[in-house]
Structures are given as C-alpha cells and as structure tokens.
C-alpha cells in the first residue's frame, strides 16, 4: 500500500542520491495522483488509503509536492485551515485538532505553512514562546511539556528555530506566483515573532526567499496564487551573527556527548539503542544548530559556534525538507527544467 511517510522518505532519499538517474526515476504524474487521492475534504491529507489524517500527512504531502514541483491549488486548498485548527493554547501544533502540542507536529505544521505561503496565519509569537521553553537542563529538547529530552527533537524543535530565524530576518517570504505571473511583486506580511534574534549587524540586508514551481505538462492548474519559498543561500554577506533563541552549544553537547553512541550512530538518550531515525534527526539537528548563529547561511559558521574541533562541522541542510542543501539545489534545478 502506498504511504505518505515512505513516499516522503523515498523522495528525500532519491534527492539525496541526486543525479539524473535518481531524479528521473520518480514518476511525478502517478505521485501527483496519489497525493490527490490522499487529500481529504477537510483540507488535510491521509497517510494512506483509509489511514489517519494528521499534520504529518499534510507536511509529507506538501513537502514532496513542493520538492518535485507538482504543488498546485488543489493540493493546497484548505491545508492551512487544517493546520491552523491544530495550533493549541500552548502555542505549539498538535497532530490533530484537540491533541497536545508536540515538536514533531509543530515542525511539520510550520514548514507546511511556509511552503504554502500561509505562515502569517499562525500565531508565531505564541509558537515561539512555546518552543523556547522546550530545551531541557540536559541541553537537548523535549517534544512536549513535562516530557523527557530526546535527541531526535534536536531537529524537530531545532528546525523550528531555523525556520523562525529566516522568517524573523526582516526579509520575510517573497511570494512567487505560479503560471501566468499574476500577483507578482507582492510581499507577504512580515511575521511578528520575537525579535530577540534581531538587532545585530546585517539584519537589514536582503535575504530573499523565493522560488518557482512549474507544471508537469498542462496537467495541473497552477494559475492562481500558490506560492512557495526557497531559502536563498546565494547572498554572501560575510559573518553576520544573530543570537539564537536557544542554547546552541548546550544542544551540541547533548547531541555529541549524550546521543552519540561510541560505536557509531545516534540515539534518543544514554541507555537507548542507536537507530537510523535518531541518527538522521540528531545529525540534521546538529547541522542546523551549528549554523544557528549565522544570519547568512551561505557563509561558514565561526569556529566558536561549533562545539569541539571544526571538523565536527556538518553539511548544511535545507530546513524545510531536511535534505542536504546541495542536493536540494540539484533537485530544484532538475524539476524546474523538466
Ligand atoms: C515527517 C515525519 C516523520 C514526521 C513525524 C513527526 C513526529 C516526530 C511526530 C511525533 C509523534 C509522536 C506522537 C511522538 C510522541 O511519542 P512519545 O510519547 O514516545 O514521545 P515523547 O514522550 O517525546 O512525546
Ligand atoms: Zn526520539
């Protein structure tokens, strides 16, 4: 049975492999049809035929569609309303309406809202307030209030900071219209999340977030205002620094010293076993954390921002999709042309 989680993992894996052979092996027409079949009348998505509707399904569907350049109005319709209905009184986002705010779903919800260009509809101030209190004394993040820290939240919560930082950086999200170019030039509203990260040098410079989606043939209606962002890493502006809204060195300490298994691989916490899931999300969390002082993602972090030897520095990732940044650009170019 096709499933959105495995679809997301497979597409990200192929993008990570990169190259024409891997990228052209994805049947985008059939994948688009699958995504349409998973779309629910509520606006949300199901994980699989007859499966659960939740924020993770919305993210995996929209992320894959965006990465493959098959995102259109039909897929986007009412997703934003569904995600909004999951933002809780605490400020974070739950898996389904009425559930508890959780880091995994908050990342998924925030990233989805950015990808569909509706992030300004969330209460970003209370979301920021919620996430800044999720770092434990151990240095790692917990997924939800009063729970234990766990290495995988280094990305789910740490990735939220990476996204908020870009939204906060005065440059905002530049809408790129699909199809006929209608609506171009409009700036989306700036977010008002905590401005603590601002105030340092370089924050008034342009970090445009822009991208474009093309159609697969004439199949999809892409005529209206479906927008997407790409984080533009092409502006080199030296070493502008912003203070992260969490303790970056403490998180790196937790990942490297508590989550790392001496024989290789990473884990939730000492006493737990290593696995691929925690290895992936601890490393992605470490990568965004090492760059949390940087306003400009294009320049390398200063040595003091990287815990331990500078050889600990990981490849940058794209924080919306969680793929190595270089490979994201390869896929972006490939699917923009084809
Ligand atoms: C794209 C993708 C794979 C998204 C998944 C997002 C994600 C990690 C969602 C969290 C799921 C969940 C119910 C965790 C609680 O488990 P728990 O009660 O064992 O953990 P906790 O005590 O830390 O809350
Ligand atoms: Zn975990």
UniProtKB/TrEMBL annotation:
InterPro entries with a match to the protein in the record: FTB (IPR026872), PGGT1B-like (IPR045089), Prenyltrans (IPR001330), Terpenoid_cyclase/PrenylTrfase (IPR008930)
Cofactor: how and how many bound: Binds 1 zinc ion per subunit.
Annotated Prenyltransferase alpha-alpha toroid domain residues: 2-323
CDD domains for the chain: FTase (cd02893)
One GO term of the biological process aspect: prenylation
Catalytic reaction equation(s): L-cysteinyl-[protein] + (2E,6E)-farnesyl diphosphate = S-(2E,6E)-farnesyl-L-cysteinyl-[protein] + diphosphate
Sequence segments annotated as region (Disordered): 175-220
A Gene Ontology term for the protein's cellular component: protein farnesyltransferase complex
Molecular-function annotations in GO: protein farnesyltransferase activity; zinc ion binding
Enzyme class label: transferase
Keyword Iron-sulfur: no
Keyword annotations of the record: Metal-binding, Prenyltransferase, Repeat, Transferase, Zinc
Cofactor: Zn(2+)
Enzyme Commission no: 2.5.1.58
SUPFAM superfamilies membership: Terpenoid cyclases/Protein prenyltransferases
Family: Belongs to the protein prenyltransferase subunit beta family.
Function per UniProt: Catalyzes the transfer of a farnesyl moiety from farnesyl diphosphate to a cysteine at the fourth position from the C-terminus of several proteins. The beta subunit is responsible for peptide-binding.
Name of the protein in question: Protein farnesyltransferase subunit beta
Source organism of the structure: Gossypium mustelinum (Cotton)
Lineage: Eukaryota, Viridiplantae, Streptophyta, Embryophyta, Tracheophyta
């Amino acid at each position: 049975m096709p499933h959105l989680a495995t679809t997301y993992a497979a597409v990200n894996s192929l993008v990570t492999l990169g190259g024409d052979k891997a990228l052209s092996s994805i049947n985008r027409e059939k994948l688009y049809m699958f995504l349409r079949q998973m779309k629910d009348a509520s606006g949300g998505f199901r994980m699989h035929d007859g499966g659960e509707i939740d924020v993770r399904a919305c993210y995996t569907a929209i992320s894959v569609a965006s990465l493959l350049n098959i995102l259109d109005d039909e897929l986007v319709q009412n997703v934003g309303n569904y995600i909004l209905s999951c933002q809780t009184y605490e400020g974070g986002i739950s898996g389904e309406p009425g559930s508890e705010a959780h880091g995994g779903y908050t990342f998924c919800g925030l990233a989805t809202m950015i990808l569909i260009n509706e992030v300004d509809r969330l209460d970003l101030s209370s979301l920021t307030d919620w996430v800044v209190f999720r770092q434990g004394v151990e240095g790692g993040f917990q997924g939800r209030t009063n729970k234990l820290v766990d290495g995988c939240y280094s990305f789910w919560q740490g990735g939220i900071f990476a996204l908020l930082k870009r939204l906060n950086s005065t440059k905002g999200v530049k809408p790129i219209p699909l199809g006929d170019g209608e609506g171009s030039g409009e700036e989306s509203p700036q977010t008002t999340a905590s401005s603590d990260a601002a105030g340092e040098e370089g924050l008034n410079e342009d970090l445009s977030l822009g991208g474009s989606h093309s159609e697969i043939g004439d199949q999809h209606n892409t005529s209206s205002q479906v927008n997407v962002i790409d984080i533009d890493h092409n502006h080199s502006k030296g070493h502008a620094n912003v203070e992260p809204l969490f303790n970056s060195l403490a998180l790196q300490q937790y990942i490297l010293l508590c989550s790392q298994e001496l024989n290789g691989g990473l884990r939730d916490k000492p006493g737990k076993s290593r696995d691929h899931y925690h290895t992936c999300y601890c490393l992605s969390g470490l990568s965004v954390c090492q760059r949390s002082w940087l306003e400009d993602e294009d320049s390398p972090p200063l040595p003091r921002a990287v815990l331990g030897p500078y050889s600990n520095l990981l490849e940058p990732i794209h924080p919306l999709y969680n793929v190595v940044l270089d490979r994201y650009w390869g896929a972006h170019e490939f699917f923009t042309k084809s």
